[in-house]
Write a structure and sequence with these properties.
By secondary structure, the chain is of the alpha/beta class. Helix content is 32%, strand content 17%.
């Protein structure tokens, strides 16, 4: 495992973009596992900037996203498909027919999950998987629990997640209560993993994930068993690790 420290969010975003762009340059037809949320936005902006300068070519790239809300269509502005279009796909020369996100409109959970596992298999596996980390150590929507979920599965969102999302919807009835997410086995099967974390709210989760016991109570702790993990984090996110003299 390699850990790079960035001064701040912008520096972390640039360093993470460097690592992702190296993957694209070295393997122009790479399969990238992508993530949503506030953490990767800066990295995507940097990749777009380099694309516009002519430094990057996405024309042969395939992407698979970690997760999607069940019940939302791709044109709903709260869906992760919409997020990816707005923050990356609409701004680069990627072929959108090769950008995959779980089908939020598939009501049959078993079918949606089996279909997405098939997609991941059919694209030949993931070359580099981008991950953020939750304050409780979750990756994708793999929340702390009794066991590591293996492949794509449907999760019931926690009450706190549902409440946090409520502000984006007209009424509580419209807020998604479930999501489809890649499982730990899907994530661990990626050849390389790029974990990005910023802010002091992630310090405890990052410490437990990288140096604590491997347990489904801290889903990201499984990454200790992966052979090629790169972590890019800012001073705040690394504060506890440094305090304990581990870095």
């Amino acid at each position: 495992m390699i850990i790079y420290e960035g001064k701040d969010y912008q520096d972390v975003s640039r360093k993470a973009a460097n690592i992702m762009s190296a993957q694209i340059i070295m393997k122009p037809n790479a399969v990238l596992g992508l993530a949503t949320g506030s953490t990767p936005v800066g990295m995507y902006k940097q990749l777009i900037e380099w694309y516009k300068k002519g430094d990057l070519d996405f024309s042969q790239i395939t992407s698979v996203n970690l997760d999607e809300y069940k019940g939302l269509s791709g044109d709903n502005d709260q869906s992760y498909r919409y997020f990816m279009n707005m923050n990356l796909f609409d701004h680069v020369n990627i072929d959108k027919t090769r950008t995959y996100v779980p089908n939020g409109l598939e009501e049959d959970s078993d079918k949606a999950c089996a279909d997405y596992n098939e997609v991941i298999r059919n694209v030949g596996g993931i070359d580099m998987q981008l991950l953020g980390i939750g304050g409780n150590g979750h990756i994708g929507f793999n929340e702390p629990g009794e066991a590591f979920e293996k492949e794509t599965h449907c999760v019931d969102l926690t009450e706190s997640t549902i409440k946090a999302n409520a502000r984006f919807f007209e009424s509580m009835d419209e807020v998604p209560k479930q999501a489809y997410t890649m499982g730990i086995k899907n994530i661990m099967a990626a050849k390389k993993i790029l974990l990005v974390a910023t802010g002091s709210a992630k310090a405890d989760a990052l410490y437990k994930s990288l140096y604590g016991p491997i347990t489904p109570n801290v889903p990201a702790s499984i990454l200790q068993l992966h052979q090629d993990v790169t972590v890019v984090a800012d001073e705040d996110a690394l504060s506890l690790i440094k305090e304990k003299g581990l870095l």
